[in-house]
């Protein structure tokens, strides 16, 4: 089992990185090293190090601006980037698009605020856990929800909202 990351390591970090595991019917949320917010490969490595027999995926919430869901599996790692426009100004989002073989959007950084966000990647990434592609697509398209609120809805829908809340509370 991977070592648990101390919440104090997040003192100078905007956002959070967690791994979510489900063994039978029990959800657990593990705080990942803050370095996972800067590297898809680092996040993937930490998620794999948990070595669980059930479902496992990572959530990288970057500055409450966007998030990436990372789900390693036997046939490769599946990714979902909540906002492809984030790749215009953020390296982690750019890494996600590169892994997805999608080009960074050609948007003038000064016009980014007027551009509607769109997801890229595997919208069925959480389908086997109870959050289908259509529902996730509608959630990510909701202009009234910020990314952290979208993640809260995902956690509620799948049933790990209290575990996520406890980890986020530990960050202060």
Helices, strands, pairings?
Blueprint: E1 15-23, E2 26-31, H1 40-49, E3 55-62, E4 66-73, E5 76-81, H2 91-99, E6 120-121, H3 133-141, H4 147-158, H5 161-171
Antiparallel strand pairs: 1-2, 1-3, 3-4, 4-5, 5-6
List descriptors.
6-stranded antiparallel sheet; 5 helices; 172 residues
Can you offer a commentary on this structure?
- With 172 residues, this protein is an alpha+beta fold.
- It has one domain.
- It has helices at 40-49, 91-99, 133-141, 147-158, 161-171, and strands at residues 15-23, 26-31, 55-62, 66-73, 76-81, 120-121.
- Strands 2-1-3-4-5-6 form a 6-stranded antiparallel beta sheet, sandwiched between helices.
- Strand 3 (55-62) and strand 4 form a beta hairpin.
- The mean pLDDT is 91.
- InterPro entries: tRNA_Adeno_NH3ase_assoc_put.
- This is tRNA adenosine deaminase.
Query: Oligomeric state of the chains?
Result: single chain
**How widely separated are the two ends?**
25 Å
The strand count comes to 6
Q: Give the overall form.
A: globular
Organism: Tsukamurella pseudospumae
Protein name: tRNA adenosine deaminase
Please provide a brief summary of the model:
With 172 residues, the chain is an alpha+beta fold. It is 30% helix and 23% strand.
């Amino acid at each position: 089992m991977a070592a648990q990351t101390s919440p104090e390591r997040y003192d100078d970090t905007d956002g959070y990185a967690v791994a979510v595991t489900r063994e039978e019917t029990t959800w657990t949320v593990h705080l990942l090293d803050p370095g996972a917010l800067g590297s898809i490969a680092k996040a993937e490595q930490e998620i794999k190090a948990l070595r669980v027999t059930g479902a496992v995926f990572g959530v990288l919430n970057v500055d409450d601006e966007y998030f990436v869901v990372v789900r390693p599996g036997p046939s490769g790692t599946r990714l979902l980037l909540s906002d492809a426009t984030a790749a215009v100004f953020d390296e982690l989002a750019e890494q996600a698009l590169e892994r997805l073989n999608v080009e960074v959007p050609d948007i003038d950084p000064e016009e980014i605020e007027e551009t509607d966000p769109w997801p890229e990647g595997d919208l069925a990434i959480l389908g086997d856990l109870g959050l289908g592609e259509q529902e996730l697509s509608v959630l990510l398209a909701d202009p009234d929800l910020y990314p952290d609120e979208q993640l809260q809805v995902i956690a509620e829908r799948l049933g790990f909202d209290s575990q996520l809340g406890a980890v986020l509370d530990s960050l202060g």
